[in-house]
Amino acid sequence: MLRLPSFRYLEPRTLKEALRWKSESGPESMYVAGGTDLYPNMKRRHQEPKVVISLARIRALRPKGRSRKAASGLTLAPMMTLTELVESEGIRESYPVLARAAELISTPILRNMGTLGGNLCLDTRCNYYNQSYEWRKAINFCLKKDGAICWVAPSSPRCWAVNSSDLAPVMVAIGADFLLVGPEGERTVAAADFYQNDGIDYLSKHPGEILAEIRVPPRDGWEATYWKLRRRGSFDFPVLGVAAWVRWEEQKVAEARIVLGAVASQPQPVPEAAAAIIGSRLDDEAIEEAALAAFRPSKPMDNTDFGLAWRKEMTRQFVRGALKELRSKLVE
Amino acid sequence: MDGDRAVQVSTEVRQAVAADHPGREKRVVGRAHRKVDAVAKVTGQTRFADDLFLPRMLFAKLLRSPHPHARIVKIDTRKALELEGVKAVLTGEDLPIPFGILPVSQDEHALALDKVRFVGDPVAAVAAVSEEIATQALDLIEVEYEPLEPIASPEEAIAKPEPRIHDYGDRGNFHKLIHLEFGNVEQGFAEADLVVEDCYFYQGSTHLPMEQHAAVAEWSPQGKLTLWSSTQTPHYVHRALSKVLQLPPSRIRVIACPNGGGFGGKSDPFSHEIVAAKLAMVTGRPVKITLTREEVFYCHRGRHPTLMWVKAGVKRDGSVTALHFKSLLDGGAYGSYGVASTYYTGALQTVTYQVPRYKFQGARVFTNKPPCGPKRGHGTPQPRYALEIHLDKIAERLGMDPAELRLRHLVPPHSLTANYLRVGSMGLGECIRKVVEGSGWREKFRKLPYGRGVGLACSSYICGAGLPIYWNNLPQSGVQLKLDRGGGVTVYCGSTEIGQGSDSILAYVTAEVLGIDPFDIAVVTADTDLTPVDLGSYSSRVTLMTGNAAIQAAHKARDLLASAVAQKLDVPPSRLEFAGGRVFDVQDPERGVAFAEAVQLAEAAFGTICTVGSYTPPPAAGRYRGAGVGPSPAYSYSAAVAEVEVDPETGIVRVPTIWIAHDVGQCINPVTVIGQIEGSVYMGLGEALMEEMVYRANRNLVHKIPSMLEYKSPTTLEMCDVVTYLVEDPDPSGPFGAKEVGQGPLLPVPPAIANAVYDAVGVRIDEIPITPEKVLKALKAKAKGDAGRFGPISFPEIPWPDPIRVPPPWEGGDGTAVGDKGRGAGGMRERRTRAGDYAGGEARG
Ligand SMILES: Cc1cc2nc3c(=O)[nH]c(=O)nc-3n(C[C@H](O)[C@H](O)[C@H](O)COP(=O)(O)OP(=O)(O)OC[C@H]3O[C@@H](n4cnc5c(N)ncnc54)[C@H](O)[C@@H]3O)c2cc1C
Ligand code: SF4
C-alpha cells in the first residue's frame, strides 16, 4: 500500500493559536482542511510537512449556521465542505453558479470531506507531477519537486502545472474577494490577484496566511455560468473550465468576464473574448467572435488528460455553449 | 436501468433441456440463488489476502527499476540492512532460478538477475517491521545501472533486432512467429465477388481489479511454507514456488484467498509471491506484501495492443470464400501467456461464420514495457473487433443488412471448422434474432437522425482450453465430496473464487444431484493441502470443468446412498429420487428417508462416504503444430446491438443502451449469468471508449498514468443500460448443458459501438479506444473530402516462417499438416516436459 509518512498533527482551536503554532513549526509545517488534496500529495511525497496543522477545529473558519448574506454580498467560510456548499438552499437560489461548480467536483464522498478553502488553495496539477516518488524518480523528477527540468516545456524556466480547481475560475469571473489572516495581520485580495501564473508559486498567499473568508459580490444584474470538460462525469478533474460572467443593462451586455480553468497555472481571464460581447445582445455573431477570441490564445499544455489540439478546439465549443446558456437566462 | 432489463429465456430451449434429462425437473440449476459467499462479502467478513495478520508479521516492499532497459552493474544493500527495523534484503542472486507461466517462456526472475526490462521491474526486496520502514529502506539500496537502448514499440522491435530484450524467442526481438494456412486462400480470393482489405488497431488495457495483489507467507519451524495470495491460479503458483525455492511441492501449501476481482491479472505466478515466501524463509517470521495500485499496473499481464490486417473474400450473397488475418502483438517485457495470446488472435475467427479457407499469421514482439498477458477474452477481443467491423463494411458494400449477412452464413452446430475446432451447440442465430428484435434494429439501422446510430456485432468464446498449460495427461479439474453423517456435505475443489461465483457453482451443482439445499453444502476451495487440483480461474473453464467433476463425484455419492436406501426400502435404486433433503420412492413419495439418514445408511454399509470426480477435456481434432490453442469442450456465443449518440461538434460518443444476447448453454444461476454479462459489457465499454495503457516514449518509457484517477475506466455513472437476453442452447459437454459466460459477452461490445458510430455520423473508427479526438479528426477529414476514417493504414513487413499447411476437413484433411504425418497434437506441447515434473525441466527443450 502507499503509506502516509509519519507526521505531527496539531488541532488549534483559534486562528491565533493556529498562526502561532504555524510560525513556531517553521517551513516544515502546513495547514490542512479536509485533506483530500494534501494527504494524497503527501503519500506521493509532493509535500513533506513534518507538522500538519488542522483548521477543522477553528470555529471562526466554519460556516456559522447560514452563510452570511448582506447587501454587500455573501460571505462564505473556508471550512464549508463542498457538500454543504452544494446543498445550501441560499446558495442554490442566489448563487447557482457556485453550487454548480462545486457539484461538478469529484464524488459525493470527496465533497463530504473537501472544503471550499482547500479547493481554492488546491495544489497545481500535472501528470508528470501527480505520481509516486518512485515514478518521478524514473523521469529524474521535475522542476516542481526534486528536479531541475520541466518535462512539459523543457526549455522553460518555470513550471506549467495546471490550476485544476473548479471554483477558482468562477471566483475570478464573479469578482470575489478573499480575506487572508496572517502573522502580520489581515488583508483582502481580489480572487484574480490571489492566483499567479506559475505552477510552483501559484498563490500570492504566504505559507503562513490562512484563507479566512470568501466574499462574493451581491447579485445586482449579473448572471454567470460554469462549464466543465472532462473524460468522465463521475469524478474527473477538469481539462477545461469555462466561467462566464456578464452584467446585463438595458438588454445589452454592459460588462463581461470570461475565465478559463485548467489551461494555465492560474484561472486564465480572456479579456479579448469578453470584449467581443460587450455592447451586444449576445447574438450568434458576437458569441462566435468571443468563442474564437477565447480559442486563439488558449494554449493547453501536455500535462492533463486528452490531446492538446482537441482541448484547444473545445475552448471554442465550450465558450460558445456557456454564452448561449447565459443568453437563454438573460433574454427570458 | 432496471425497468429496461429484460431477461428472456426461450421456452423451446427450456423444453430441449428437459428432454435431455427426462423425468427430472431441475430444482436448483437454472434458478436464481444467492451466491454462497454473498453475505460474507457484503458484511465485510470475507478475508482477502491483505486482511490477514499473523503474529510477528513483517512487511515487504519491492524496489523497482527506474530504467526501461539496463544492465545491473552493482547492487549495494548495506545501508538498507543497517536501518533499524529492517530484517532482510534480497536481490536477484538470492532467487536465481527463472520461472514463467508457460513452459516455453521461463523468462522471469523474482528479482532481476542481471538485467531490467521495464520501468517497474522488481530489483530488490526488503522485509521490515513496518511498511514505512521498508519503504524508507528502498531508498537506501544503491543500484548501479548501465542503460541499454529501450525498445518502445512493435515497429521498433521489428526494426531493431539488437539489443535483444531476451536471448530466446523466434529471432531478434520477435518472441513468437506463427504462420498457419488452412486451404488455399489465394484461390478463395480469386473466386470471390468482392475482396475487402483493411487494418485495425486494438489498444492495450489493464484489468483494474478493485483488490490490489497481496500475499502473506509463513515458514514453519518444521520446514513447511504456506502462502496465502490473491491469485487466480494457486496450482501454478505452487509449481513456480517449488521450482524457484527448490522445495518439494509436498512442503508447500498455497491458499488462494478470495480474489477481489482478477479478470486475468492474477493468473501468473508473480515476483511478489516468491519474494514474500523467500523472505519468510530467511527471517523465520511471517511476511506480508501488498502492492500499491501503481505496482498493479506494473504486474499488468493485460490486453496486448494489437495491430491487425484483414483480407476477406466474399460472394455476392455474403458468404466468405477466404479469410487472411495478420496480427502483431506488443508483448511487453516478458513472455507470460503471450505465446497462447498470439495463437488466440488467430484461433476463433472460424467458429461464428463459415470460413472455408483461412490463413493466419501472428507475431508477438518484446518491448520494454510491463508484460501483457491474458485479460478477459484473452487474445480474442482484438481480432473480433477487426472482423466484426470488417463484416459491417462488407455488408454495406454488398447492400445487405449486417444482421442478415451473419444469419445466412452461421457455422452449423456440431461441426468442424477449417482449423479443426469442434463446435458443439451453437445459439448465435437465436442471439442475433433476440437483439435485432429487442433493439428495434430494423426501424433504426441507417434510419436514425444524424448523430444517432446503431451497430451490431457477434462473437464466440471458449469454455476452457482443451490443453493444460504444461503438458500432462492428468485431469484439469478434480472434486472431492465428503458426506457427513449429520447430513452435511463438503465439496473440496482447487478452483478459485474471484468474485465470479465459482464456489457457488460447486454448491448448486452438487445440491442439484443430491437433492439438498445448496446452503447446506460447505465449499472448500483453492488450498493445495486440502483440495484436489483445479488448474485455476482462467480460460472460462471453471463452471464447465469443475461442474462436470462435481457432478461426477455427486453421482458416485448418490449411487452409494441410493444403494443403501434401496436396501432399506426394498425398492430398486433406480426408483429413488433425491429431492427436498430426502431420498424417496418416486412411485410412492411418502416412503423415504431424510438425507442425513441416507448418509448414515450408506456409511454403515460402505464406511466413510467420500467420493471423487474429475474432468479431462476431449482431445483436440487438430494435430498440427499450434492446434493446441483454440480447441475447447464447447463454445459460447454472443450478439450485441449498441446504440450511440455522437456529438459532431465535439466528437464525444455516448452509449445509452446495449442489447446483448448470450448463448450460455444452460444457466446454472441466471442472476450470476446476467451479472457476468453486465460486467463484460462494462469492461468492453471501457475498452471501446477510453481505456489505454500508454507510455511516455520520450521519458524513459514510464507508464503515463498508473493510477485509478488518470487511467480512465468507466464508473457506474458512465455505464450504459444493458438489456440482456439469455439464450440456452445446451451443450452436451457442459454440466447440465452449461457453457461459459465470464468472458465472451465482452467481445461484441467494442465492434458494435464502432459500427454504431459509423451508422451515426458516417465515419469509421478502426482503432480503439474511440476517443472524441479520433471521431472529430475523422469527421474533419470526411468534410474535406478525404476518407472518413481513423485507424492504421499499413501492416509492417515481418519475416514470417514458412506456413504450416493443413488441408481443411472438406478438402480431405485429417487435422495433420502437409508433410507432417503422425505428429502428436498441440502447439503448446512444443517443448514437452514429463507430467508431474514439478521442480525442474520446464526450461529444457
Ligand atoms: C480523486 C479526486 C478528484 C478530485 N477532483 C476534483 C475536481 O474535479 N475539481 C476540483 O476542483 N478539485 C478536485 N479534487 C481536489 C480537492 O480534493 C478538492 O478540490 C477539495 O476541495 C480540496 O479541499 P480540502 O479541504 O480537502 O483541501 P486540503 O487537502 O485540506 O488542502 C489543500 C491545500 O490547501 C491548503 N488550505 C486548505 N484550506 C486552507 C485555508 N483555509 N487557508 C490556507 N490554506 C488552506 C492546504 O494547506 C493544502 O495545501 C479532487 C481530488 C481527488 C482526490
Ligand atoms: S509543468 Fe513541468 S515542472 Fe511543472 S509539474 Fe509538470 S513537468 Fe513538472
Topology overview:
The complex is a heterodimer of chains A (332) and B (845).
Chain A: E1 8-10, H1 15-25, E2 29-32, H2 38-43, E3 51-54, E4 68-70, E5 73-76, H3 82-87, H4 89-94, H5 96-103, H6 108-113, H7 116-120, H8 133-138, H9 167-174, E6 177-182, E7 185-190, H10 191-194, E8 210-216, E9 222-229, E10 240-249, E11 252-261, E12 268-269, H11 271-277, H12 284-295, H13 308-331
Chain B: H1 11-20, H2 38-42, E1 58-64, E2 70-76, H3 78-82, E3 86-91, E4 115-116, E5 122-128, H4 131-138, E6 142-147, H5 154-159, E7 174-182, H6 185-191, E8 194-202, E9 214-219, E10 225-229, H7 234-245, E11 252-256, H8 271-283, E12 287-290, H9 293-299, E13 306-314, E14 320-330, H10 338-347, E15 358-365, H11 381-398, H12 402-408, E16 415-416, E17 422-423, H13 428-439, H14 441-444, E18 452-462, E19 477-483, E20 489-493, H15 502-514, E21 521-525, H16 542-569, E22 576-579, E23 582-585, E24 588-594, H17 595-606, E25 609-615, E26 635-646, E27 653-663, H18 670-689, E28 695-696, E29 702-703, E30 721-727, H19 749-761, E31 764-765, E32 767-768, H20 772-783, E33 789-790, E34 804-805
Parallel strand pairs in B: 1-12, 7-34, 8-32, 10-11, 14-15, 20-21, 27-30, 31-33
Antiparallel strand pairs in B: 1-5, 2-4, 2-6, 3-5, 7-15, 8-13, 9-10, 9-12, 13-14, 16-17, 18-26, 19-20, 19-25, 22-23, 23-24, 26-27, 28-29
Helix pairs in contact in B: 7-8, 11-19, 15-16, 16-17, 18-19
The structure holds flavin-adenine dinucleotide (FAD) and iron/sulfur cluster (SF4).
